[in-house]
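Q: I'm building a small set of examples for a reading group on sequence design. Run inverse folding on the following structure and report the sequence directly after it, with nothing in between.
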C-alpha cells in the first residue's frame, strides 16, 4: 500500500503497492536465530522434566519476542538505510549474547541473558522512538511500546537476580507483559492506546518473514538429525530406519505448512480490513507452531540416538507433544488464513492420543515412524481438502459472475 503523507519519513520503506522484498540484512539477522533454535532444542533434550520444559518454553517465548518485535520494525522501516541497518546489527549482537547464554540462563548466566534481552527490546524501541518526529503516528505507538518493555524489563532483571524457581515465575510474568501488551494496544495511562488499524504493515513481507523463520526451525531439525547420525558409530539398519522417520517427518511438517497455505497467507493479510490485527495473530500463532518444530527436533534426536530403546514416559511425551503442538499451531494458522479450522488437524491430534497406550511397547524408531505416518496422513488430507476448497471457491466465484 502506498505511504500516506501522515506516515512519510526517510527511514520508512517506500511502498508503491508491490510486495516489499526481504532484504539481505534481514536474512543475515536471521542467522543468529538458527543458533538460538539449536540452543533451545539442545537445552530441552537434556532437561526432559516438567521444570525443564517450563524453563525452555519461557526462553523460547523470549527468543521469539526479540525476533518478532524486530520483524515489525523492518516491515515499517527500510533495513538498507544506515541507521536502521546499524540498529539491526546491534540487535543481532545482543541476540547472539542472549542465545549463547541459554544453556545457563537458569544458572550463573541469568543476568547475561536478561541484560542482553532487555537491551535488545528497550534499546530498539527507544531508538525508533528517538528517530521519529513527535507528530508521526508511529512515534505514539513506539512511546507506548517503550513503556511496556520497560515494565517487563523490571521483571526480567528481578528474575535474573532471584533463585531459579522464583526466576521462572518472574520471567513468565515478563513474557506475559510483552505478549499481552499488543492485545491491549500498548495502553498506558496518559498515553492512550494504539489501534491495529494504524499498523499499516505490508502483508507480503510479514508473511514471508514468518515463513522464513519456519524454514530456520525446520532447517535446524535437519541439522540436528545429521549431527546425531554423524556421531553414531555403527549405522545399522535400525539407525537408517530412524533417519528415514526423522527426515520424512520433517518433510511432512514442511509440506503441511508450505504445500497448502503459505501463498494464501500473503493474500489474507493484504486483503484484510485490519492487516495489523492479522499480522499480530500471525506472530502469536507462529510462536506455538515453531515451538512444535523445536519439540519435534528433540524427538528426532532421541529416535536417532537410541533407535532400539523402549520409549520411556518423558520420551513418549516429547515424541507425541511435538507433532501435537505443531498440528494445533497449524490449525490456528489456517483458521487465521481461511476462517475455519481444518478437520484433518484435529483428527490427527486425537489419533496422537491413541498412540499413548501403544507407545510403551514400541521401540523409539517404530514410534518415530508412527508419528511420521500420522503427520504425513494429515498433510495428504489437508492437501486434497485445500484443493477441493479452492475449486469450490472458484466455482462460487464464477456463479456470481
Amino acid at each position: 500500500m502506498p505511504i500516506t503523507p501522515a506516515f512519510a519519513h526517510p527511514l520508512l520503506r517506500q511502498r508503491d503497492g508491490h510486495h516489499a522484498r526481504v532484504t539481505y540484512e534481514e536474512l543475515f539477522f536471521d542467522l543468529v536465530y538458527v543458533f538460538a533454535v539449536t540452543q533451545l532444542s539442545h537445552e530441552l533434550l537434556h532437561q526432559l522434566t516438567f521444570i525443564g520444559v517450563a524453563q525452555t518454553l519461557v526462553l523460547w517465548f523470549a527468543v521469539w519476542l526479540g525476533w518478532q518485535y524486530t520483524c515489525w520494525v523492518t516491515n515499517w522501516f527500510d533495513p538498507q538505510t544506515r541507521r536502521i541497518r546499524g540498529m539491526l546489527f546491534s540487535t543481532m549482537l545482543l541476540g547472539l549474547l542472549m542465545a549463547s547464554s541459554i544453556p545457563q540462563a537458569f544458572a550463573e548466566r541469568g543476568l547475561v541473558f536478561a541484560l542482553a534481552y532487555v537491551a535488545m527490546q528497550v534499546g530498539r524501541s527507544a531508538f525508533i522512538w528517538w528517530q521519529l518526529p513527535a507528530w508521526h503516528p508511529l512515534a505514539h505507538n513506539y512511546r507506548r511500546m517503550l513503556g511496556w518493555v520497560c515494565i517487563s524489563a523490571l521483571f526480567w532483571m528481578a528474575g535474573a537476580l532471584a533463585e531459579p524457581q522464583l526466576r521462572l515465575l518472574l520471567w513468565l510474568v515478563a513474557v506475559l507483559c510483552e505478549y499481552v501488551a499488543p492485545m491491549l494496544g500498548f495502553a498506558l495511562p496518559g498515553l492512550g492506546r494504539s489501534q491495529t488499524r494504524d499498523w499499516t504493515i505490508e502483508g507480503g513481507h510479514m508473511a514471508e518473514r514468518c515463513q522464513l523463520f519456519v524454514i530456520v526451525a525446520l532447517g535446524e531439525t535437519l541439522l540436528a538429525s545429521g549431527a546425531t547420525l554423524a556421531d553414531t558409530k555403527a549405522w545399522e539398519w535400525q539407525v537408517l530406519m530412524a533417519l528415514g522417520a526423522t527426515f520424512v517427518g520433517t518433510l511432512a511438517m514442511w509440506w503441511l505448512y508450505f504445500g497448502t497455505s503459505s501463498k494464501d497467507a500473503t493474500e489474507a493479510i493484504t486483503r484484510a480490513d485490519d492487516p495489523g490485527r492479522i499480522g499480530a495473530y500471525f506472530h502469536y500463532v507462529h510462536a506455538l507452531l515453531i515451538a512444535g518444530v523445536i519439540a519435534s527436533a528433540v524427538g528426532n534426536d532421541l529416535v536417532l540416538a537410541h533407535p532400539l530403546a523402549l520409549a520411556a514416559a518423558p520420551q513418549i511425551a516429547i515424541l507425541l507433544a511435538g507433532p501435537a503442538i505443531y498440528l494445533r499451531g497449524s490449525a490456528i494458522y489456517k483458521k487465521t488464513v481461511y476462517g475455519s479450522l481444518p478437520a484433518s488437524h484435529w483428527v490427527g491430534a486425537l489419533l496422537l492420543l491413541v498412540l499413548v497406550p501403544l507407545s510403551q511397547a514400541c521401540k523409539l524408531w517404530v514410534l518415530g515412524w508412527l508419528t511420521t505416518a500420522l503427520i504425513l496422513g494429515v498433510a495428504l488430507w489437508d492437501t486434497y481438502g485445500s484443493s477441493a476448497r479452492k475449486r469450490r471457491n472458484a466455482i462460487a466465484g464464477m456463479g456470481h459472475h
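Residues 183 and 199 are 13 Å apart (CA to CA).
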